[in-house]
Design brief:
CATH class: Alpha Beta
Number of strands: 12
Strand content: 15-25%
Order of helices and strands: EEEEEHEHEHEHEHEHEHHHE
Bound molecules: zinc ion
Shape: globular
Low-confidence stretches: none
Largest sheet: 6 strands, mixed
Structural class: alpha/beta
Length: 293
């Protein structure tokens, strides 16, 4: 069995001219070295090569991968949990403002915190999640039954008022194949809300190969506003709103400092700098709101 997958074409535009962008380690778990390349045709950046689909699960196995747990140990994790509650409220307010109806599908629900908060706000919720530990947590903590990603194929077309992907699209192995399915189940007047890290942000440029949100090989794609707009335009979707995720600048900068120097205070300062300098390249992470054209 082949353990790595090498792209010979750009996963967005099929272009064959690829340039090396950066060489960097998996700082969080394995310390293995990976490469990010960019497509000369459309400017899309992606990790290449990547672990094969059968093996990529091995790169998620860590106590540190807190998006899949609710561990309260460590300063960064503590901050993460406090901020999560504020962020949750903002996310629910956003979907409440934008959605025309109450049918919500969250893709990559993790531990189910957002889905639970949305349900309390009156949404009829459905969530997809591949990780069994996260599923078990959502069931035990919130009584939520999250489904496998493949369940998307059983869902009716034009049935969802809102689809959310919070820091998930960069993990989706079969990018265009799966995105096509997600767009299919969205109603004509539905909204598709996608939050991803922004590799054009000040903190991404400042930290370079230490930038925690490159997070190779778990992050397969490295988006910026131009390239995510281009990806969605292929599915007849246009971006109608871009919103900042200001806390991510602090979280990502602190984590980047942990990899680089261990100086958490610099992380806080650089989080501030990133938000202050967001006019040129955007915020550390951004929320993109797409609608069908
Ligand atoms: Zn391309």
């Amino acid at each position: 069995m082949e353990q790595i997958k090498t792209y010979t074409n750009c996963p967005v535009c099929e272009g064959i001219l690829l340039s090396e962008f950066m060489t960097l380690p998996d700082h969080m778990i394995t310390k293995e070295i990976f490469k990010i390349v960019n497509c000369n045709s459309c400017g899309f950046h992606f990790t290449n090569p990547i672990p094969s689909e059968e093996f990529i699960g091995n790169y998620y196995k860590s106590e540190n991968y807190i998006s899949h747990s609710s561990s309260k140990s460590g300063l960064i994790n503590k901050a993460y949990n406090v901020v999560r509650n504020i962020t949750l409220k903002r996310k629910v307010n956003l979907v409440s403002r934008l959605a025309k109806g109450k049918n919500l599908l969250d893709i990559g629900s993790g531990t189910g915190h957002f889905l639970n908060a949305s349900r309390i706000s009156g949404f009829q919720v459905q969530g997809l999640e591949p990780d069994q530990d996260a599923k078990d947590f959502a069931k035990k903590e919130f009584g939520l039954s999250l489904q496998n990603l493949s369940e998307i194929q059983t869902m009716a077309s034009d049935s969802k008022d809102v689809i959310t992907m919070w820091h998930v699209l960069e993990h989706v192995y079969h990018l265009k194949r799966d995105l096509k399915e997600f767009v299919r189940v969205l109603k004509k007047d539905g909204v598709f809300i996608v939050a991803v890290p922004n590799m054009s942000s000040w903190d991404a440029k400042h930290y370079g190969s230490f930038w925690a949100a490159f997070d190779v090989p778990r992050h397969l794609y490295h988006f910026q506003e131009k390239t995510i707009r281009n990806l969605f335009s292929q599915f007849e979707m246009e971006c109608v709103e871009v919103l900042p995720m200001k806390f991510d600048a602090f979280y990502v900068s602190m984590l980047s400092e942990k990899y680089k120097s261990g100086n958490i205070v610099s992380g806080v300062i650089n989080g501030l700098k990133s938000n202050f300098n967001a006019k040129s390249g955007g915020f550390s992470s951004q929320i993109y709101v797409f609608k069908k054209i």
